[in-house]
Structures are given as C-alpha cells and as structure tokens.
Specification:
two-stranded antiparallel ribbon, 2 strands, mainly alpha, disordered N terminus, single chain
Length: 349
Amino acid sequence: MNTRPLVSLLSAFLVSSVGWTASAQYGAPPYGGSYGGQYGGAYGQPPAPYGGYAYPPRKTEPKSTPLEVGYLYATSVAYGVGTGIWFDALVGIDDPGVQFIAPALLGVAAPVGVYFLDSPPMPRGMPSAIATGMVIGAGEGLGIASYQYVSAREGKEWGFLGLATAEVIGSTVGGAAGWGFYYLLRPKPQTNMLLASAAVWGSLIGSEFGAAASNGSWSESNDAISLGGLIGFNVATAGAVGLSIAWTPSWNQLAWMWGGLGIGTVVSLPIYLAYIGSDHDPRRGLIAQGAAGTLGLVAGALFLGSPDRSGELAADEEDRGRPAFARVLGGSLVPYRGGMGAVVLGELW
C-alpha cells in the first residue's frame, strides 16, 4: 500500500494548522506568503518589543531629594537627643559631667543610622514619611502627657519622666507607623507634609474650641484647652490620612492652606469688639475664630492654591511605574487574509 499520499496529506494539515495558529496570534496571512517576512522570525514570532523583555520594564521609583532626607536627619537628631535625656531621667543621672553623655552619643548615633539607611538613596516619600510619623507620634505623646498633667489630682502628675517616656514611645511608634504608611500607600512628600500640618492645625483649632467651651476663670480652662487640643490633633490627623488616599495636594495648596488658616484667624479678630460692655464671656469668640480658621484651610485648598497640572500628575504616575488606568504603548498595521489587521500593544492597570 502506497502511504505517501497519506503522509503528504497529514503534513499539509499540520503546516496549515501551525500557519493558522500563527496568523491568529500575530496577524500574518494564513494562505501563502512568508511568516518570517513580517516579523523576522519563524512562523511570525515577533521580536520582544522592550529590549528583550516581553513586558515593558517598570521604571525605578524617583529618589528622595536632599531636602527630604534633611528633614529626616533633623528629626533623627531630635529623637536621639530626646532619647538620651529620657535615659538620664530613667536611671536618675543628675551629675552635669555625666548627664550629657547619653544625649550626645544618641544625638550622633541617630543621624549615622539615617546615613546608612539612605545608602543607597531612599525612594521619594520614604524619608518624609518616617520623619512625619516620628513628629506626629511625639506630638501624640506630648498631648497625652500634657492632659494628664493638667487633669490629674495634685501629687499624681506624671512629671518630667512621664513626659519624656510618652515622647520616646510616641516618636518610636510613630516612626514605625510612618515606615509602614510609606510601604502601604507610597505617599509623595506633599502628602506627608499634609499629615504633619494637619496635626498642627487640629491642635490649634481644637484648643480654640476647648477654650471656648470652658467655664470659670482662665486658670481653670487648662483642662478643656488641653483636651480640645488632643481631640483636634487626632481628628485632624486621622482625617488627613483618609483624605490622602484620594487626594495629594500641591506645595502651593499646602502653603495656601496655612495662609488660609492665618487669614481666617486674623479676619475674625473683630468679633471680640462685640464683647465690649457685654455680659457674655469673650472666650466664646474663639468659636468664631476656630470656624473661620477651618474655612480658611478649605478655601486655601480649593480656591486659593493651585493644584498640580495634569501633565505633572501623569508624569508622576509614570515615575511610579504604574499608569493611571490604561495606556497604549504602540501598534502597527499588518496584512491579514488578503486584507489588513491591527496589532495594538498596551498596559492595563
């Protein structure tokens, strides 16, 4: 039996199947023509479009600026010196010739640690995230210790050791939280400055509302002022963290938010003229100042400050190695079954 026709038929079928698969995948003509002619490879295998990689290599994250790293250096020096002072208070060192050793050593060791942490250079946003976490944590410790001091019964105050302990614990936990915040959300330095600023804004406005809600003599208002500042600190910081997930301010907007707070506070000062000759407590005027300062903050962000241009935002997304949602990287027209087809390359995030 002559099997050559059968073998020829099977060979033709296999070649047709391979050709049809190549044409379906790469747009090469399945009938006639050379599959290698279109892409320069066997059966139309296209060359890798990104220098030997099947996908575009992700861009490395931009490095932090000297100003941002300097912010972390300054914070680390304060942390080291403060930790040394806390150590002296903890072990009871009060000899002037000895009590400066720990602050000096730790004040040098902390920035040395930052130097090694920044080798190779840290990516943008990491130094300011850590530093801001330390600042916010120290502020939290200060707020808690201050409220305990003014509200505790006589003889039950924490004293300096309690204050120093709260500062060290708060700044240490805050620095770790800032590091985690960076790896979770990859914030820009503007976002970190928003968080640090919000902590200050919340403390000021909260203290104003706390003082406005107090009664009795001014010397008896310490509890309400301290509590209001602590509540405002935490509410504003938490709100800024939530807001940062969806919005990143520009430097200009941050500056105008500070300016808006100042303008609102100053513009509302004439409210106290209404209390001249009045039986009402002038402390209530702080309500108007707190509200005006808050409105100034919002106006600075929405109306006075200028956001980053869309082109800058798009460039920033590319710096992070991630498109905003989807983008087309390239394409070409190829012959297909007697007609024309299109090949489009892109990314979908």
